[in-house]
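Field reference: sequence -> structure
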Amino acid sequence: MHGPSVIGSTNVARVEVVLGIDIGTSSTKGLLVTPDGQVVGAAQRAHQISLPRPGWAEADAERTWWDEVQKICNILSSSAPGPIIGVCVDGVGPSLVLCDADLAPLRPAILYGIDTRATIEIDLQTHRYGEEAILANAGKCLTSQALGPKLEWVRRNEPDVWRAARGWYGCHSFIVAKLTGEYVLDHHTTSQCDPLYRVPEFDWHYDWATEICEHIPLPRLAWPGEIIGTVHRRAAQETGLAIGTPVVAGTIDAFAEAFSVGVREPGDLMIMYGSTMFLIQVLADYYVHPALWTTAGVEAETHMLTAGTSTAGSLTNWLRDLMGGPDFDTLKAEAADVPLGAEGLLVLPYLAGERTPIFDPEARGLVAGLTLRHRRAHLFRAAYEGIAFGIRQILDLFNESATPVIRTVAVGGGVNSPLWTSIVSDVTGRAQLIPREAVGACYGGALLAAIGIGLVEPKTDWTVINHVVEPDPVRRARYDELYRLWCELYPVTRHQMHRLGAWAKH
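Structure field:
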């Protein structure tokens, strides 16, 4: 594990600040932010998730997440330009942390949709409650993203853990509990814990939730920006935060990031370029589609339409490593010199299965059209294009919603690649607004904290747009034909993918 990186604040006048913390797939980050949105301190620690078996993705909630949060809080509290008067923690999700009565995790945390272990339980719960009823109540069909099947997986496969469990938490709500002692889960995260929550009514589906959770009590519900407690004495000693500091509920990191860049009005859409791609649209009215996810929003009594792929940056990282580790700048420069379409190369980016819209954990990556002429630059460009085709496929479904997309904001590490963002705009035909500072979910968490404690007005938006990536109509027209070919690849190779996956397991 790498040591923390820190941005100091020696030249900032003494001022009250809020602290936003984000526990991501590959690192934990913290930001100190002033009431006008200025970042005056930052710290980060890198980590890795555990992949102990095919289809499993886990993390150590105590020794990784909590340990890193303590270190980051101590660093930032000691360097803050003034008192930290509010805290928000966001994190990857929906994740499952099962704890005993003393808040000690009983097993490694089971991560969000990249963990695909609960396929049997997805089928069992779908059969038990009915696919149409689940879609109507939970806003989505059960997939590897759902938490209910993972709870049942533990009950069926790890009965000793299940019997000892006295609480279940998300990534961020576990940290909130460590800070405050409160057993709380925010409405948005709960709306992804399918099928436990009624998304149209913003409340538990008590019949299903109590049946699935059995003896484990349900957390109290709160909205992400709602104060749910304060830092208690032990947490203050461990983190350096002041006793009594207000803590808001927080939420899943991608949604905090959408909040951070002003995706708050109906028709606003965020595309997040990360280890996976994630898309979030604010809805004017409740809407469901079996190939998408409808959730509660970040703000009270709102709804969002969402989608996520299983790979993006993880695919480009894999390619770089496979190619012997050239730096990304070199790869991007080489790929930029490759013609559109990578001289007849298409990539299905399903190296970790796929979530939206095919929901197939057994899908596999595919490279079609390889010749001896192709080099690493062709593969790298084709990977960018394959990811972009997947985004277009999702946006085609978003277009069926009653709330049209009005503006698209792009965030995440991938926006630092002009080639990637231009390919996405050309493939989808959508302009993308690139914020001047898209510093991540912890920035959105800081804003949630600032609003929650009354430091700033509820409609405060710290976003400043730096530039716009416009689609090129000529390139868009050329991509249309390739997109149609790309869409044909999965249906005609699905059977072979599944057979190969089954063969590899034996």
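Note: DSSP finds 16 helices and 24 strands in the chain.
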